[in-house]
Amino acid sequence: GMTSVPDFVSFMQQFTPAQRAGIFQGMGLGTTPESRYGNDSLWTNRFRLNIRAKALENVEFKGRLAMYKAWGMQDSPLDPMGGGPFMLNSMSMDGNVTRTPTNSGLYVDRAFVNWNNVGGAPVWFSIGRRPTTDGPPTHLKQGRDERMATPVAYMDYAFDGISLGYAYKELPGLQDAPGRVRICYGRGFEAGPEVSAQGLKDTDFLGVSWDVYSKGSRFINVQSFAAFDMFNVPDGVTFGNPLEMAFNTGNGTLDRSNLGNIYHTSAVYTDKVGGLNYFAAGGWSRTAPHNVDEAGNGLLTSWWDADYQTAKDGYSAYAGVRYDLADLGLKLGLEYNYGTKNWIAFTPGNDDLYASKLAVRGHVGEAYMIWSIPGGEKISKFADAFIRLGYQHYKYDYTGSGFWLGEPQDINELSADPLAAQFYSPVKTMDQVYATFEATF
Length: 441
Hints:
Radius of gyration: 23 Å
Distance between the termini: 69 Å
Number of strands: 17
Number of helices: 5
Strand order of the largest sheet: 1-2-3-4-5-6-7-8-9-10-13-14-15-16-17
Mean pLDDT: 90
Structural class: mainly beta
């Protein structure tokens, strides 16, 4: 008889998808019909308090406290563990605790200390909770004129770490081309005390972010990083293990394990001509899987894969424009991005509410309008106030967008094979209209 899940998998792999579907139907198990989800309105409040203070002439502290909640509740309305859609994009974890609607508590969003001009050189050292959310080119659609964070938007994750940076005025052979380069290290998950060489390993990031050129309106950045010993279950999250439940074994929950490394490289180019801001960005992700967890999930792979140790490459392209009509106080923007079957973005800290658009394995189109509020003169150098109105259309081609577990499946062929079944509701298309009223001071 079958004593384990792998036995069951190898047994089912003897049959064709159509035969498997017949076996499951004989057991009274069929496919779930397509549903249409709707949310007529979701209102949120967000408050951010920036703090900046100098301890010494060359040592400064920067911080940001944040509250983000849905109207009428002290919990997440997206209910990520309720089995509805968007689950993989809206799990509340350390990397997005201030980035998804939760409750009215103030959380520490950023808190770091910079030591500038180390030894009198154009070198700086920084440690703490990093400014690593809303990176370029996100600032354009958020109504800003300057970048708001270090990494390219494909890395949108509030993490704790260290960076060492160097600024230069020109590169060899490139006169008057100032830029800066940073080496960054971060801890993505702390395993705690474990039996030596047997237990779970910490998950760490190591990368380089290079402003190749940064002068005036022209900005070019290339970043490359690795995430080592990726986890299957983030901190503060509990996944049920349906296979253990079905076979009545184990503890019924998915035990945490390390699955391998993920390598990630992306670049962005932004510039401005007259009133036209434009950008192009691209990303490349690559997995180095070396393990599967107890439910058979690996990095973009699973038990049903013939070889779970196969590296997989994913790609994304992202481009957009914003035209500023200064006389009318209007900014009009258009954006488009595309991700391939095996694309992985590190964007749990996304600002798209339901699902990260830059994580999509498929297509997203977005149009927006920003109107500066005629509320009189600005009171401080930080002052601004505007209304933002936008529309997003998502078209998913493959499952698992925004996550690194399991083999992506073609969404249009899910019903053909029971072994392609998903543990959450995959989304095929989504439309969203958003409006914000924002004031900075």
